[in-house]
Amino acid sequence: MTSNSRPEHLGKTLRGKPVTLLEAISEALFEEMERDSSVFLMGEDIGVYGGAFKVTRSFLDHFGAERVIDTPISEAGFTGAAAGAAHMGLRPVVEMQFMDFISPAYDVITNYLATSRYRGSGSVPVVVRGPVGGGNRGGPFHSQNVEMAFFHTPGLKIVYPSTAYDAKGLMKSAIRDDDPVIFEEHKSLYRAPHLREVLPAEDYVVPLGKARRAREGGDATIVTYGAMVHASLEAAAALEKDDGVGIEVLDLRTLLPMDDAAIAESVKKTGRLLIVHEDTRTGGIAGEIAMRVNEQAFEWLDAPILRVTAIDSPVPYAGGLEDYFLPRVSDIVTTCRYLTGY
Q1: Residue 17: other Cβ atoms inside 10 A
Q2: Residues involved in catalysis
Q3: Using alpha carbons only, what angle is made at residue 130 by residues 311 and 263, rounded to the nearest 5 degrees?
Q4: For the chain, first and last CA: distance in Å?
């Protein structure tokens, strides 16, 4: 039996209280399930247990077992089932308990979901969401960023929010989109106290494919996303305070499709570009962004394009090693000083 009342912990937006990024995602899922009966959830431990991070806590009681489906530990199997459900007119949201374990579903996502329109099989509105990222001592099986495993595949969309407002609005857009969407959620941002914000009580969406200018500046541009948005903002504030340097920070929000126009506009204004991402260096998105800027705004560049990334290694378990592995605020500050000549 399902409940008609909204779970107490999901009513913060309506009461005007600040929510975490995790709560914003929960509210987006809940509201979209209430708005559209074709939306349902699948994943390991998302029902009775409420999910590994409690994103779907109380959803089973409210929506019932036909719309909140606890699955076996078979990512390939339940992602394939979601594809079939999407063909039948439903809108499944698949949770990967950790995005590291999306790899068994790689074939379904890249060879089937992403190619469906091209093969004439119609739209497949499937969202595959889950936690990513390091800094939590999760080691190599619970800390990866998976965007570049899918970035090369036409037909997919990839979303990676950095704020509670964007997480809710982008999730709503992803669920309503008719194409398959990979939705990455950085674990360190889930319950970060400084990211709590009051969200609009009315329904809203954040369009896919549009970057956000997180900070104005005129001396150099940082293009980034996810947790590195906040590291970049901290570095930019330090540079302005200590050196008087104005760094513009552009939050991509959506990696596919990428907002080329916003990147080019910022680079044309500042003449310098630093790309920051937590993903490993080789084959990371920095290379693609740099090439697009070379093609679209090369004549406006006053310095080489630089990047700050994680190193080419599996994510270490040991705390000191993980801290060394991940990009740090000090790395961004040092590179910006080199880039701007300060």
Answers
A1: 12
A2: 142
A3: 60
A4: 65
The string of pLDDT tens digits covering residues 69-85 is 999 999 999 999 999 99
- Given a contact cutoff of 8 angstroms between Cβ atoms, the answer to whether 175 and 39 are in contact is yes
Q: Supply φ then ψ for residue 11, to 5 degrees.
A: -100, 10
Neighbours of 169 (CB within 10 A): 23
Contacts of 52 (CB under 8 A, 6+ apart): 45, 97, 98, 131
- pLDDT of the residue at 309: 98
125 touches 178 (CB < 8 A): yes
Q: Is residue 101 packed enough to be buried (19+ CB in 10 Å), middle (13-18) or exposed (0-12)?
A: middle
Q: Are strands 306-310 and 212-215 parallel, antiparallel or unpaired?
A: unpaired
Find all residues with CB under 8 Å of 143, minimum gap 6, and list them.
Answer: 100, 132, 133, 134, 135, 136, 315, 322
CA 148 – CA 106 distance, rounded (Å): 12
Is the pTM value of this prediction over 0.90?
A: yes
3-state secondary structure of 285: helix
Q: Are 300 and 265 in contact (CB under 8 A)?
A: no
| Arithmetic mean of pLDDT, 233-252 | 97
Residue 135's identity, in one-letter code, is G
Average pLDDT in the 306-316 region? Answer: 97
